[in-house]
């Protein structure tokens, strides 16, 4: 459990921005962000958490002033995203926060009270933890709304991706280092950025630092503190400007500096693997119907559960499931069909829903259970083995193209939001000018 909590706190301590006033009666302001502030205690706590993650590897971290600025920028970006989410009507209820926390505890086979005790032992207040979870949920929903309105994938793009996958059948594990340039960079800024990226490349070529350590120390990318890791990607998930380069690289190889819209980059091919051609084509599908009672601002979790319990009792007593679904279900996509969801794989509607459906025999009805949407009653009506190879491949291709497009559009959205914000670094080393936030370029001579 402690190992998992360390991972959770790695994210949440970076986003605890509300309760710091309760930690110290008097606290300095580290950064002013539009109408809000980041307190020095918040920044110190977040920096301390990063140092704890790199215990035993402190040499990989940048100098203290650079690390502080990196962490401060993360906090700034998080605060801007939360503010944008709230300004555009994104809401997260207390019940949803409670459910997320219960999920974290459940993943660790612990109760919420045990989670609370572990947080206290690690020096984190439960209120701070709740606020950080709320912030994460707000940002997730902002990103989901952005994806729904800004990202689309055509059938032609899916066809091209499948053709490319059949030709190569490869996936690529990538990492990158970014030396960012501002929009409308001056010739002097471009020259400075180019000098720095060449210096980093020279450092790598001489073997004085590995790629991940160099990313932590020098990269301006948001994933710098993760060693620049971009994860596994299919060829259709790699921007066209890089795809031809990656295809010709050997594992461990690093590209020459590449100029892109956000600045200069170095790209490393970490390793490759067979894409598996979309996985097995024959899968087990179930057919089920459900009744959903939503939890929202008008219906509390207790009220929704009480209504679901009443409906379940009526079903057990012989009432027609489909008739009750048409009358009471709050799922507009299935209500008119008597709650019928059609054929689907058990995990299609999330792990909680899938676990309930998988545990049922055909024709059986579940007891009421809770998901993020609300309280459900499910009746499983059938099971089959289906060949969905082509369908799966197209769905996976559509999803990976969408992820790539979302990443590109979202990063551009974040850069624009950051550029439009009023940000004033007040205290500590974070007051350095943006041009001074990264170490000077390593020497390029012998």
Automatic annotation (TrEMBL):
<feature type="domain" description="PpiC">
    <location>
        <begin position="169"/>
        <end position="271"/>
    </location>
</feature>
<dbReference type="InterPro" id="IPR015391">
    <property type="entry name" value="SurA_N"/>
</dbReference>
<dbReference type="InterPro" id="IPR050280">
    <property type="entry name" value="OMP_Chaperone_SurA"/>
</dbReference>
<keyword id="KW-0143">Chaperone</keyword>
<dbReference type="InterPro" id="IPR027304">
    <property type="entry name" value="Trigger_fact/SurA_dom_sf"/>
</dbReference>
<dbReference type="InterPro" id="IPR023058">
    <property type="entry name" value="PPIase_PpiC_CS"/>
</dbReference>
<keyword id="KW-0732">Signal</keyword>
<comment type="function">
    <text>Chaperone involved in the correct folding and assembly of outer membrane proteins. Recognizes specific patterns of aromatic residues and the orientation of their side chains, which are found more frequently in integral outer membrane proteins. May act in both early periplasmic and late outer membrane-associated steps of protein maturation.</text>
</comment>
<dbReference type="InterPro" id="IPR023034">
    <property type="entry name" value="PPIase_SurA"/>
</dbReference>
<keyword id="KW-0697">Rotamase</keyword>
<feature type="signal peptide">
    <location>
        <begin position="1"/>
        <end position="20"/>
    </location>
</feature>
<keyword id="KW-0677">Repeat</keyword>
<dbReference type="GO" id="GO:0003755">
    <property type="term" value="F:peptidyl-prolyl cis-trans isomerase activity"/>
</dbReference>
<protein>
    <recommendedName>
        <fullName>Chaperone SurA</fullName>
        <ecNumber>5.2.1.8</ecNumber>
    </recommendedName>
</protein>
<keyword id="KW-0413">Isomerase</keyword>
<dbReference type="Pfam" id="PF00639">
    <property type="entry name" value="Rotamase"/>
</dbReference>
<keyword id="KW-0574">Periplasm</keyword>
<dbReference type="InterPro" id="IPR046357">
    <property type="entry name" value="PPIase_dom_sf"/>
</dbReference>
<dbReference type="InterPro" id="IPR000297">
    <property type="entry name" value="PPIase_PpiC"/>
</dbReference>
<dbReference type="Pfam" id="PF13616">
    <property type="entry name" value="Rotamase_3"/>
</dbReference>
<feature type="domain" description="PpiC">
    <location>
        <begin position="283"/>
        <end position="382"/>
    </location>
</feature>
<dbReference type="Pfam" id="PF09312">
    <property type="entry name" value="SurA_N"/>
</dbReference>
């Amino acid at each position: 459990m402690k190992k998992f909590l360390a991972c959770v706190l790695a994210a949440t301590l970076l986003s605890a921005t509300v309760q710091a006033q309760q930690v110290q009666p008097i606290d300095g302001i580290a950064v002013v962000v539009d109408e809000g502030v980041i307190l020095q205690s918040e920044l110190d706590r977040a920096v301390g958490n990063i140092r704890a993650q790199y215990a035993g590897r402190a040499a990989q971290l940048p100098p203290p002033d650079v690390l502080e600025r990196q962490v401060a920028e993360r906090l700034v970006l998080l605060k801007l995203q939360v503010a944008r989410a709230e300004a555009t009507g994104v809401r997260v209820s207390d019940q949803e926060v409670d459910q997320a926390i219960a999920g974290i505890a459940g993943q660790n086979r612990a109760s919420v009270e045990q989670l609370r005790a572990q947080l206290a032992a690690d020096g984190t207040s439960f209120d701070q933890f709740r606020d950080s979870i709320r912030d994460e949920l707000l940002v997730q929903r902002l990103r989901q709304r952005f994806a729904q309105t800004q990202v689309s994938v055509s059938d032609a793009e899916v066809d091209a991706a499948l053709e490319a996958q059949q030709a190569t059948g490869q996936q690529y594990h990538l990492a990158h280092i970014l030396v960012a340039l501002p929009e409308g960079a001056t010739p002097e800024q471009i020259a400075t950025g180019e000098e720095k990226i060449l210096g980093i490349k020279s450092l790598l070529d001489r073997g004085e630092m590995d790629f991940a350590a160099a990313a932590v120390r020098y990269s301006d990318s948001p994933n710098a503190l993760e060693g620049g890791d971009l994860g596994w990607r299919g060829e259709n998930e790699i921007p066209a400007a890089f795809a031809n380069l990656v295809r010709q690289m050997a594992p461990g190889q690093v590209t020459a500096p590449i100029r892109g819209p956000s600045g200069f980059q170095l790209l490393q091919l970490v390793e490759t693997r067979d894409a598996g051609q979309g996985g097995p084509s024959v899968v087990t599908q179930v057919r089920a119907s459900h009744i959903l009672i939503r939890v929202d601002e008008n219906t509390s979790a207790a009220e929704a559960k009480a209504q679901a319990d009443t409906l379940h009792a009526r079903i057990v007593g012989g009432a027609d499931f489909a008739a009750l679904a048409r009358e009471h279900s709050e799922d507009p996509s299935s209500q008119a069909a008597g709650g019928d969801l059609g054929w689907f794989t058990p995990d299609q509607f999330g792990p909680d829903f899938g676990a309930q459906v998988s545990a049922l025999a055909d024709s059986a009805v579940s007891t009421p259970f809770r998901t993020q949407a609300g309280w459900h009653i499910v009746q499983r009506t059938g099971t089959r083995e289906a060949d969905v190879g082509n369908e799966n491949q197209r769905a996976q291709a559509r999803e990976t193209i969408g992820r790539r497009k979302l990443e590109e559009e979202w990063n551009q959205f974040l850069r624009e939001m950051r550029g439009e914000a009023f940000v004033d670094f007040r205290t500590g080393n974070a007051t350095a000018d943006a041009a001074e936030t990264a170490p000077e370029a390593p020497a390029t001579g012998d």
